Amino acid sequence: MRRGMLRWASSRRLPATRLGLTTLVALLLAVGLAACSPEPSAEESTPRPVVIGSKKFTESVILGETLRLLALDAGHPARHRAELGGTRILWGALLSGEIDIYPEYSGTLVREILSGEDVSSPELLEVALAARGVRSSATLGFENTYAIAVPEPLAEQLGLQRISDLREHPDLKLGFSSEFLDRADGWPGLRQRYRLPQTRVQGLDHDLVYRGIDAGHLDVTVVYTTDAEIARYGLRMLEDDLGYFEDYQAILLYRAELAEKAPDALAAFRRLEGAIDAPTMAGMNGAVKLEGESEQAVAARLLSEGLGLAVTVSGQGFWSQLSQRTLEHLGLVGVSLGAAILFAVPLGVLAAQNARLGHLILGITGMIQTIPSLALFVFLIPWLGIGWLPTVVALFLYSLLPIVRNTHAGLMDIPVPIRESADVLGLTRGARLRLIELPLAANTILAGIKTSAVLNVGTATVAALIGAGGYGQPILTGIRLDDTALIMQGAVPAALLALGLQGLFEFAERWVVPRGLRLKPSVGVRAEADPDPERPGA
Amino acid sequence: MLRFEGIFKDYGGTPALADVDLEVSEAQTTVLIGPSGCGKSTLLRLAAGLIRPDRGQVWFEGARLDTGSLRPARLRMGYMIQDGGLFPHLSVRDNVALMARQLDWPRERREQRLAELADLVQLPTTMLARYPIELSGGQRQRVALMRALMLDPDLLLLDEPLGALDPMIRFELQRELKAIFARLGKTVLMVTHDLAEAVFFGHRIVLLRAGRIVQQDEPRVLLDSPAEPFVAQFVAAQREPQRVLLGAGG
Question: How many domains does chain A have?
Fold first, then answer.
């Protein structure tokens, strides 16, 4: 009797497909969550670390690193979220309290961040900032403004000295950083002020601009006056004869509350006021970008030589860094993909059951796919801040479409006679879906998940831009420093991870795709039972 | 048992059935026949609840087929179609026993019934572990019949059940099926386009044309006294090969 009961129980097992998919999702979520489990919580007595942000160019990262060392030296815990992207992301993060302080430039503040407001005097500027709970330091002692630069030989040949001279040469190839192309104080204004005739303007990453010039793809570009590459690539900066470019003094923007919450750290930060001159800054940029020193080492030298502080620098080993990035990346991919499967499969089922709803669901998920990842981050940051959460949400959204679409397609492809046979047998709608339709669509659904996984691993590298780390970090830094080996340190593991996931899913097919669908028709069986179709009368 | 009452059915403006009344008698085989598009399959699909009539009613065992009564009614029907309609991802055993498992039959009872049915349709029990793709066409139809019979239904609905088989296998299965129906005493409603098959199986043949019943009678009567010229034409057309043969011989 007991044996009978047991056998009966085991015969009512979960259908293999559901079991397989459930295991898969659980595995992904477990790996993801384990990989991104929060850092051990700080003890009660230690104050909350000051969070420093920096933009994704070398000078900003050096300054951010300097700030971190200053806080540590003052005995205050500090964290540097390096290479967070552009002005918009940093400013947003400062306002939402994701970061406490970051290096900025006065011109950017006045003309970009607060554009459209009257901040013509220092007093008005202070009021405008105070209204947002933000304060500004005095200048750090150097200016890093935009300059238009041309390779020395070309400048010599065409006799270019001033920006006005460009007017005579409409055929020159112009290439600017994308930020400069768009911003109010960038190319549109410059073009208007100097009445420049050039129409061929390329937008690219600032760090790629020098490569473009070097390779001869570009004739004219915009540089920052403290860029170390100006000397290296032999560029001539053209005189701003109409006085277009604003004053771009380096400053620190910080949350006003820092004065109460971390006065010690703030006092340390403000020691940088007036402490760095332009040649020093250009030298530090060169040390990092051209000599390959770490930002941390350069920042430490500044503090010891300029401010007389003895700072110890600790580097992270290659393997520990790699494993940390792998964990970060797995955390992003696992959680976003697992959640996407949980949402997308039911959405695909709904889409297959109701044609009108299906149009809507496929339309919306398709539309999400067309939003560039950076734009999506910018939408998400006001709600979710920076770092892990907005990245996971963005990756989750991007992962929906392939799974929804394939679930829908897999279900729609089931032949009508099969569906009807299930109906007439008396299966309920739920049982039909669970026992017949989902298993039959399993192969297609899994293919969608596979596509999502590979896309996800790739897209997750962009996450470094908003401080979520992962394999994108060395890629980002590598592009900034023009360091191919560093780019490989991110690109190769990312590619391997994508391949590994693909392999995992192929392995998972055994559980998810029912055996009957993996078999090839057996010719032997056919021939033995049916007469040869060529000779029906035999 | 099964009764169609004043049925009208349109497919996008084209009438498929117009005012059809039909009573399917118990423990007999009723065959629906007629040219393509005459409405014979539509009638069968109405009985299976796969479509709804625009007007009129389908009665099954004293109750009207509607949303509420459909599922219990289906559990007392067996359904078999041209290609078997087997679920490719399930083994023969799981295909046949699927519904019994859903209804919580104990394993012993399921296995016993499976063995009975395999014996009935002459399927070697070693085939139970195979998947549909590993079976021949004839074996698939045997399995489809097992599945249709699993819950011991009162009514069998067969839509061209042997239509996809080659002639030898078809001939063999026809005889087996007829014997099985006779042995079990089931009520059968079958659709075919082949008059010889209809005559072979049918206690009664219902000839349809353009959505209307033209004649319903025993095979003998239908062949000997056509109710209208169309019936005679239909019968003559299906006898063509025989006549060619006879003509050649004489």
Answer: 3
Q: Tens digits of per-residue pLDDT, B24-79? A: 989 999 999 998 888 899 999 999 999 999 999 999 988 898 888 889 999 999 99
pLDDT of residue B73: 92
Distance CA B10, CA A537 (A): 42
Q: Note the pLDDT of residue A314.
A: 67
Residues of B in contact with A530 (CB under 8 A): 136-138, 166, 169
Residue B168 lies in a domain: yes
Domain stop point among A203, A237, A271: A237
Q: Is A232 in the same domain as A256?
A: no
Is the Cβ pair A530, B137 closer than 8 Å?
Answer: yes
Q: Do residues B60 and B70 touch, judged by C-beta distance below 8 A?
A: no
Phi/psi zone of residue B61: left (φ > 0), alpha (ψ -120 to 50 degrees), beta? Answer: left
CATH number of the domain within which B40 lies:
3.40.50.300
Q: Which two tokens stand for residue A98?
A: 């994701």
Interface of A with B in 500-529 (CB under 8 A): 514-517, 519-522, 525-526, 528-529
Q: Which H or E element spans position A179?
A: helix A178-182
Please give the full DSSP string across B167-208, using - where no structure is assigned.
HHHHHHHHHHHHHHHHHHT-EEEEE-S-HHHHHHH-SEEEEE
Give residue A117's pLDDT. 85
Could you tell me which of A434, A436, A443 has the C-alpha nearest to residue A407? A443
Verify that A215 and A334 share a domain, yes or no.
no
Q: In chain B, which residues have their Cβ closer than 8 Å to the Cβ of A529? A: 135-136, 138-139
H or E element: which one contains A148? strand A146-151
Query: Which pLDDT belongs to residue A384?
Result: 85
Whether residue B189 contacts residue B47, with contact meaning beta carbons closer than 8 Å, is answered with yes
Q: How many domains is chain B built from? A: 2
Top mean pLDDT of A19-23, A40-44, A96-100 is at: A96-100
B201/A contact by beta carbon, under 8 A: no
A465 in a domain, yes or no?
A: yes
Decide if A514 and B89 are in contact by the 8 Å CB cutoff. yes
Residue A45 confidence (pLDDT) = 55
Mark whether B163 and B236 lie in a shared domain.
yes
Q: Return the percentage of chain B with pLDDT > 90, whole number.
A: 60
Reference A440, options B189, B132, B18, B13; nearest CA is B132
pLDDT digits (tens, 9 = 90+) for A40-96: 444 445 678 899 999 988 899 999 999 999 998 888 899 999 888 888 889 989 998
Domain that residue A285 falls in: 54-142+248-306
Query: What b/e string do you get for A63-78 counting C-beta neighbours within 10 Å, with b at 16 or more?
Result: bbbbbbbbbbbbebbb
Q: Cα(A344)–Cα(A401) distance, rounded to whole angstroms?
A: 8
The reply to whether B135 and B234 lie within a common domain is no
Say if residue A439 is in the same domain as residue A354: yes
pLDDT of A16? 59
Cβ-Cβ contacts under 8 Å, B169 against chain A: 530-531
| Domain boundary, last residue among A237, A259, A291 | A237
Q: Which domain holds residue B113?
A: 86-152
Comparing C-alpha atoms, which of A6, A4, A15, A9 is closest to residue A432?
A15
ipTM of the complex: 0.90
Q: Clarify whether residues B49 and B173 are in a common domain.
A: yes
Using alpha carbons, select from B80, B48, B38, B21 the residue that is nearest to residue B216.
B21
